[in-house]
Design goal:
heterodimer, A: mainly beta, 11 strands, 0% helix, 47% strand, globular, B: mainly beta, 6-stranded mixed beta sheet, 58% strand
Chain lengths: 116, 113
């Protein structure tokens, strides 16, 4: 597709359930990012892939959060044993064919996760 | 470490008036700076970027921003506000060798008819 695609757009889960969020980046983009955006806040970095390698996962809030990009394209963010504080919009972004910081990141529309 | 501060969480301007959204950055090395816009229930759309070329950067929808190293600022302006400019605006910073974006807390722009 032309842009970054995320699914589902909305996810409601009960506390304690596991969830999986999918990101399909722009074709050929080397870098892929996950951000978490709490209500009324700016996005906060979670993790970063260059191709299939996870180069930075310093923003993952706990070991309940796990991300993968096994073939260097589609990525999945998994949250185990969800808690209410996990409720947020999860944004995926991809950039560049060369993996450079001066290249803009292109964002998907996000997945809004609500934990009951 | 790098950070951005956006002064004013809410800004209201009349239609046709000047838009000024403020962003100050902190970075120990030369920064790359970005402005993004977010409409309700959508992702972020790039307005413009500064990557150490011209200090006055022109973006989409008539927006522009000026990088001022002496003031560590990268304020966003538009000469004449339009109703369609109502949205949330985020300033973000990164640097060479570190692709992750650090965002400000955002400024919600309201346009008064």
């Amino acid at each position: 597709g032309a842009g970054v695609s995320q699914s589902p757009r909305y996810k409601v889960a009960k506390r304690g359930q596991d969830v999986a969020l999918r990101c399909d980046p722009i074709s050929g983009h080397v870098s892929l990012f996950w951000y978490q955006q709490a209500l009324g806040q700016g996005p906060e970095f979670l993790t970063y892939f260059q191709n299939e390698a996870q180069l930075d996962k310093s923003g993952l809030p706990s070991d309940r959060f796990f991300a993968e990009r096994p073939e260097g394209s589609v990525s999945t963010l998994k949250i185990q044993r969800t808690q209410q504080e996990d409720s947020a919009v999860y944004l995926c972004a991809s950039s560049s064919k060369t993996g450079r910081a001066d290249q803009p990141q292109h964002f998907g529309d996000g997945t809004r996760l609500s934990i009951l | 470490a790098q950070s951005v501060t956006q002064l004013g969480s809410h800004v209201s301007v009349s239609e046709g008036a000047l838009v000024l959204l403020r962003c100050n950055y902190s970075s120990s090395v030369p920064p790359y700076l970005f402005w993004y816009v977010q409409y309700p229930n959508q992702g972020l759309q790039l307005l413009l970027k500064y990557t150490s070329a011209a200090t006055l950067v022109k973006g989409i929808n008539g927006f522009e921003a000026e990088f001022k190293k002496s003031e560590t600022s990268f304020h966003l302006t538009k000469p004449s506000a339009h109703m369609s400019d109502a949205a949330e605006y985020f300033c973000a910073v990164t640097r060479f060798g570190n692709e992750k974006l650090t965002f400000g807390t955002g400024t919600r722009l309201t346009i008064i008819p």
